[in-house]
Hints:
mainly alpha; 11 helices; flat; MetI-like fold
Amino acid sequence: MARLAQALPDSGEPPNGTPEKAARFAYALVWGFARIFSVVALEVLARSGTFTPFQLPALSAVLERIWNDAVSGDLWINSALTLYRALTAFAICAIGGVLIGMAMSRNVFANWFFDPIVSVGFPMPKIAFLPVVILWLGVSKITIIVIDAIFPVIAATVIAIQGVERELIWSARNMGATNRELLHQIILPAALPQILTGLQVALPLSLIVAVVAEMLMGGYGLGGAMMTASRFANSTSVFAGIVEIAVVGFVLVKAMALLRRRLLIWHQEAVQPYTQ
């Protein structure tokens, strides 16, 4: 048995990284091939005559339009305004949503006051409040973004704090931890993964509502530029706006995922499991 135990590799340590590296390389190769095939197929379909250039402009024409917008500066102005609105609203949602969620989890009166609002407001299409926001506050795109994106943060914070293991709280109290120490050293770190999940939902939602608000309320921004192009039947510019919004959203989502990995470097989800 001893010789057999010495002959078998330790199951807790991977024998080598070659299969894993080969799998990653194969995945990257397939991923790249699929993207290249999709781009070529879209270009061929657009130029095949199946659709008119108004219905489906060629990808090369869309990229040329994006390049012209970048050279003229319109792309950077519109992207900066949309990002300003989305990120400002997201910051308000992150701070306000976490504070409200913490208050609901730890204060009976706060839970009594905010719980009906969250329960009713969360499933509602908040963009329906846009006419009310315009009547009350004028053209305030950031306000409607906050109204729409703050609910996931509140819900995630409440669920995360309420889900902290009671044994951790009891152990900390038995060791003499104050309420502030309990909050900063036990509750918030334990709830952080789920709070970040709520923030990951709120960030792309902020961008989506920002674009929709620009489309409905007008003005500069990626959404406003798309509506202006649509009014002039400029299909190429409309599709260029779609690509621009997709790229901005992709970058924001990846940046948030990177921030999550940095903040949760201590957490078990940061450990890459070894599987054969």
